[in-house]
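User: Run a structure prediction on this.
Assistant: Running it now.
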Amino acid sequence: NAEQYFKKVTEGINTDQAQLALADYYIAMGRMTDAKAILEPLNKKADFKGPVPLRLASIAETENNRGLATTIVAKVLEKTPSYAPARIFNIRLLSADGKIDQAIAEAQTLIRDDPNTPAAAEANLVVGEIETNRDRTDEAIKAFEEVLRIQPQSVQAATALAVVHLRVGNADRAETYAKQVLAAQPTNPMARSIVVRANLMRNQPDRA
């Protein structure tokens, strides 16, 4: 099975990357204790640098220990302040903790520091989600459109834009973005629902 495969790879190669692959398998299977048994020794070697501590922070958040997740991410940023994955993780933690203005500020700083990068796209995605929740539609649309500018195939951003446009009654734009999602994921239930609702909004149920 998959576990035996990863274990054999780990035993045969015994590299940090192989160990990390096995830990990722355990995380995917929800076996957090087994994952931590691998990750914690790796993190002692990594000294809170790179992806290993962020895996531990992700597990802590999954286990509803956001305080530990925040502490781990802070240590990573102390060691490597410009490490984009840690900065993104920190922004999401700030948002989850209700520190909205701080999350927005950190996201905007990252966008300025690393424009046109996947990290900037991810930061814009967080901004769009925050602004959507605050009913600041124009700001949300701007952020999500920036994600698509950087990553034109982003299903998450296209879906978010379809939802926002539908919310404000812009059926044509909602349908356009929903169809963009369906081009990549033809059975996506959210996108299919938005196409139906957009047609109903235009009083065209025959197209739904």
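The chain has twelve helices and no strands.
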